[in-house]
Amino acid sequence: MFAPDWVSPPGDTILDLLEERGWTQLQLADRLGFSLKHVNQLIKGKVPLSEDAAVRLHTVLGGSVGFWLKREAHYRERIALQDAAERNATMVSWLDRFPIKELMAVGVLDKRRLDAKSKPALVGEMLSFFGVASPQQWERQYGEMQLAFRRSRQDQADVGAISAWLRMGERLAERQEGPRYDEARFRAALDGIRALTLQSSGDFLEAMQRLLQDAGVAFVLVPALPRTHVSGVARWLSPSRPLIQLSLYGKTNDKFWFSFFHEAAHLLLHGQQKSTVFLDDPTKSGSNSREEREADAFACDALIPPALARELPNIAGTRAAVRAFAKRAGIHPGIVVGRMQHDGLLDLAWLNDLKVSFRWEAGTD
């Protein structure tokens, strides 16, 4: 897009018309009924061209009223953009907080060279991405959000990267419409979603999103960003709008479904903590947090109910036995393999071919 670094005020057009007519500024002032000082400031862009002035210029110099008002509006827009660019140039160090190249790679930002010339515009893009007017507002809206984080890993400390990933999810959720959150419908939706574990990702995703949307729960898939160490989050965008956000990093189906039911547990069990942002990573070695332990237990029981889980130690570690158990449980065999590996009933290298890797594409903006 052409973006000149010069600005032409409406006064330039006024001067051209004066030259054509051979008038002085004093003569124009007399015809307009303005003082010479006001006309001079109008020509220099020192005072705004008002509706009244547009009508007078239309009468005296020609051109429509709309022409003069648009000329003024374009001029003020360019001035505002230049002022913003100058302010942004003083804020480029703020960009160091974010994984800029990775945000370009996933389409959040336009790809460009990162140099002194491009960074001021990039500051503007990042402010627009977050929906804030300045880094100070970002700090209030997102930087201070870390006070609400409930981390499953101690290295989930890069607030810039985490906030960018969370904002990607917010923007996707903003596109979704639906009723207010209904806990009863959400619990019923989870029963229906469990049955979808038998389907491929291309088949279940639409049905899963529809069930959640009808229950008033936003569900989004967002590509993983480096330095976040987060693969899932449960949070409340408003008191009646919960969000489950998952990344696709390293998601075999056992991890994906465990992550989903884990985040669902946070909404159901810890929904009173509406300001809390639960940051989770299924690769964590364990958490001392009561909420995380409760969410883990909920996910385990939702996928394989306790009555069936008690049979797992007696299952022979063969494909046939795992498939037979999965069929009785009504879930995918890969989930059974993941549970047995987690419980130490199966070597981590065994039967991984029964798991399915999810590789679908997710929108980012």
The biggest sheet amounts to: 5 strands, mixed
Structural class: alpha/beta
What would the average pLDDT be, to the nearest integer? 89
- Please give the order of strands in the largest beta sheet: 1-5-3-4-2
Helical segment count: 16
Beta-strand proportion: 5-15%
Brief write-up:
With 365 residues, the protein is α/β, with parallel strands linked by helices. The protein has helices at 10-21, 25-32, 36-44, 51-61, 65-89, 100-105, 119-130, 135-141, 159-174, 183-195, 201-214, 253-269, 290-303, 306-309, 319-329, 333-342; strands at residues 149-151, 218-221, 232-238, 241-246, 277-280.
Task: Note down, in words, how this protein is organized.
This protein has 365 residues and is α/β, with parallel strands linked by helices. 52% of the residues lie in helices and 7% in strands. The protein contains 16 helices and 5 strands. It has a 5-stranded mixed sheet with strand order 1-5-3-4-2, sandwiched between helices. Helix 4 crosses helix 5, helix 10 packs antiparallel against helix 11 and helix 10 runs antiparallel to helix 12.
Key attributes of the depicted protein:
16 helices, five-stranded mixed sheet, alpha/beta, single chain, 365 residues, elongated, 5 strands
